[in-house]
Amino acid sequence: MLYERGAKALRGARIAAIAAATGLSILAGATSAAADTVVKWLHLELDPNYIAIWRKIADQYEAKHPGVKIEMQFLANEAFKAKLPTLLQSKDAPDFFYSWGGGVLKQQEETGTLMDLTTAMNAKDGAWLKTYNPAAIKGLTFDNKISAVPFKLGTVSFFYNKALFAKAGVDATAIKTWDDYLAAVKKIKAAGIVPIAGGGGEKWPIHFYWSYLVMRDGGQQVFTAAKTGQGNGFNDPAIVKAGEQLAELGKLDPFQPGYLGTTWPQALGVFGDGKAAMILGFENTAANQRTNAGDGKGLADDNIGRFAFPAVTGGAGLPTDTLGGLNGWAVTKKAPPEALDFLAYLTNPDNERIMAQAGMIIPVTIGSEDGVKSPLMHASAEQLAHSTWHQNFFDQDLGPSVGRVVNDISVGIVSGQMTPKDGAQQVQDAFEQDQL
């Protein structure tokens, strides 16, 4: 295969360039270590089917590179966020780990624990760099330093159970505005069906609602002003209004009983078991609900529909503005050259295509877009292709300190434990404290 022959030619040069960029030595022209080199890979993927795909890719790499061992390590989402800062400073730090990008990645880069990938990725006229969507590289670059290897793009949208919508007499295609959405929630609830599967126990799944409403009400200009300390900051009237709209949703009691203690995997299970009509989730929600359903099968793909987060009447934001991730793999300074070479292999067009075909990712590697086969995943990819403003998750973009408050106030507002004005003020206070 032409790609493989080219890849082999590049691999030796790439490892040599990586060694030069990291200050580590390696035998010239070698494509594997003389003795076992263990590459530690830290992830937070829950789906065993996806992990199996990664393991197969890693096994194939190991077969081609005797002496290199890829060791996969796992932490659950919240434990990952809590433990990673300490882990990065320890002798047990991974060689590379999952990153959401945004302010969290920037803060990690500023601690000096991450490897600057700029030189390695630009070696040999940027042969490695040029394999990725330029926008993905740009989104993971701070102060002209590439801080992570691109992995995938994603967007958050609503997924719904077609059978339950039909039972409630709701036409999903008619949901264009937030008022339409609230009307649908009321109608579904009146039919004796739980409208939304909510994961309030981890808080961040609820922040999708507050974030999207801020985007729809204020638009990019208001959010950019707030996070750069201009104008009224997070006390902007549009942001307060977003909180009021979230509170209005909460008053409808739209989630399943006990949602404030429900984890994200459990919420996916509620949806997959047909116990809620819809869920606001990631592009791979259709696949993940199967894994978390009680029977391990969940809803059939042809029983799942999808629609974008609705517009807000009179809002400055556009209905084509999207919220989601630009995810990558951040590399620690102690990582051996083999870690970067494996990352180049993991994210090459062939392997990203395999992951896309499995419904795992919307790829960022040029030439692998044709791997997106799932109609639902393809709809997410199309939405991203026409996005007028793609905003990284607020809790990641604003950094860990402010991000935690965003998650907290989102749950506080929707559950009626906090007023929208107090929520906006708390985010503003956290932002100002973070600037000190």
From TrEMBL:
Signal peptide start-end: 1-35
Annotated compartments: Periplasm
UniProt region (Disordered), positions on chain: 417-436
Keyword Heme appears in the UniProt entry: no
SUPFAM superfamilies: Periplasmic binding protein-like II (SSF53850)
Subcellular location, principal: periplasm
UniProt xrefs under PANTHER family: ARABINOSE-BINDING PROTEIN-RELATED, BLR3389 PROTEIN
Descriptive protein name: Extracellular solute-binding protein
